[in-house]
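Discussion board: Methods & Data

I've been asked by a reviewer to show the raw model output for two of the constructs in my manuscript, not just the figures. I'm not sure how much to include, so I'm pasting the format here to get opinions. Each protein appears as its amino acid sequence followed by a line of discrete structure tokens. Is this the kind of thing reviewers expect to see in a supplement, or should I convert it first? Here is construct A:
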Amino acid sequence: MKVVFKNSDSNKRYYTLDYFYRKKFGGKIAKVSLNAGFSCPNKDGTKGYGGCIYCSKLSSGDFAGKKEKPIHEQFDDIKKVMLHKWPEAKFIAYFQAGSNTYASTSQLKKIYEPVLKYENVVGISLATRCDCISEECLNYLEDLSKRTYLTIELGLQTIHEETSKLINRAHTLDEFDTMVKKLRERNLNVVVHIINGLPYETKEMMRKTIEYLNTIDIQGVKIHMLHILKDTALEKLYEKEKFHVLTKEEYVDIVCDQLEILNPDIVIHRITGDPKVEDLVEPKWLIKKFGVLNDIDKELVRRNTYQGIYYKKDV
């Protein structure tokens, strides 16, 4: 029997970001990853040094622009590449590297206000931490959201305090929860990052993290697979303890379980990672991103399920 699921005119069994953007903006939207050179309280000594144990100096910001270049040059370089693939695309300026609200409001304005005037930019997305948004910053973000499509991406990674301490997140779940509420009180869009396969977490623990997301008011989620990068504290821990790294089959199974219980109104902004090959220690299967995506699609078809099929509103 063919299942009928929310957003069934999408080509996926989950609520993809591409589908959301096309419905909202009427066409293709491409995210341009930028590096404004922001630091982080977990790196500069305010809370700690070195950042989370998976953070790498080699790939801070993944595929963001080069911080040595001005923002407009970064934007133009990446935009040209994207226009070859999607000639009619419009753009979200995605400030990806570092904690992108970790500065004075006056500094933030100098960085973000010019971007609003770039041709065909329809929105701004800011990756940051729950402990990097002051009340003054909240006021500015609320104002900014009235002038462009604004999204705040908050790293959570896990709800489990023992794991959070192990990976050196340096903030609590209560702090995270409080900031989500503050952002939503101002009607700001919130996307949460989580990581599957963190050291010593079980499948049930990863499921609990998704169940928590169902209890808070968020608009999107990014699901990552833990990847061990060279020259990180995580690499040293892996070399010492050889903790279990999820196989591709385990990851696909866990993601499909998570999707089945996730609120169908939450947009899936990412469902796997794509680390740089030259930086990656494990798992090697992550290199073939589209193979992982295809396997998730196939597993949902095999199960005859979809995002939210087992969602319970008040879990």
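Construct B, same format:
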Amino acid sequence: MRALLTSHGSTGDIYPVIALGKAMKDAGHEVRFATVPFFQKEVERAGLEFIPVPPDWGQDRLSEAMRKLSRTRNPVRLLQQIYRQSIPFIGELMNRLEEAMEECDIVVSSYLFAHFRVLAQKKKKPFAVITFSHNVVPDPSYPPFPVAKLWLMPRFAQKLWNRLLWRASDRFILSALNRTMGKHLRKAGSPKIKYFLMNPGDIALVAVSKRLLQPEGFQKSSFQFTGYLRWQSEEDPELEKTLRKFTEGGKVTILTFGSVSFDDTESLMQRFLRNWPTGKKLIIQTGWAGLSPQEEREDILFVGKVSHDQLFSHGSVIIHHGGAGTTASALHAGVPQVIVPHFGDQFLWAKEIRRLKTGVRIRRKRWPERITPAVHHIEESPTLAGRAKELADILATENGPNKAVQVLEELLVEAKVD
């Protein structure tokens, strides 16, 4: 199999696709990954062929783009904003991807970029998508997130209503995306976007735990729950010495907001540090926001880019933004979580962590003042810690990358038969 993978966005959008590519390569397939140059090193570390596509942005531009997204709460407007950011280079991007598709047997893309399916259809290539959150999987047993379920209605009425909501949502999103991108796609020689929620690809890989997150009775064969696809930054032996010295062999609270960026980082950090108890050890990952010490404190350690698995192995509580990748890492680590969602599917993950009884959510407004009470609540609740370990044991039995490779191999066989 010659596979072309593509994804764009933050670390959480790229690393799971790298994990899939590595598994495909290990299974004997030829894999190329088309993405922005910022992630070239990680793609090549996995042994995948790297294909550069625009934009060639550095950390500052990527952080600014993330800041703009974090100001948008409405999910459809957020999606439009993601597409709008690609307008200046959409022609070059589509041309490079179309050229790369000439030498592949299958195309695998992040779910968000529905206009790539048009290219795959033009080249008559099987097209698969990966979604890192299960809230986009259409099923009559529940409505589109975040619409509330109609609990008081009979089940048959709920299913009928939910079907109507999914179809209406699909049409609404397609209309919004084509209003945003239609003329720019036409200028690039590409027709309008035709598919999103209801039929995103020949197969959709839902890269979350099947045992923990697949709806009961789910039967939609075009959506396959594979398990998590996880790729980690390289572990740092020298940093490990620093972490062990700081924690003194114990477990401490860890704060990371990943790729989320803030308009007022310095002010937020000042407020947070004023409210964090003196003498209580804390590790802060600087992340894309560039969180930095406002004063020297022996009880707080700042770290940069690091493997989640390496860092979270030292954690007693993980405070984070609710990104799909960070949530998955905390679940795999068996550590309870405090989630401060900012936008997009982060609100879904905050809801799921509460449902799974392995953490709590606090609201974005005044989070610097609310973190400490939330951490104290978790530390005083052995049930949450025990539940987190139970879920980690369940996740250890799943192999998302291998399952995803199997699904893609079957799709290619079916495509060749047809």
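Answer (T.O., handling editor elsewhere):
This is acceptable in a supplement if you add a one-line summary per construct. For B, something like: Residues 155-187 form the longest helix (33 residues).
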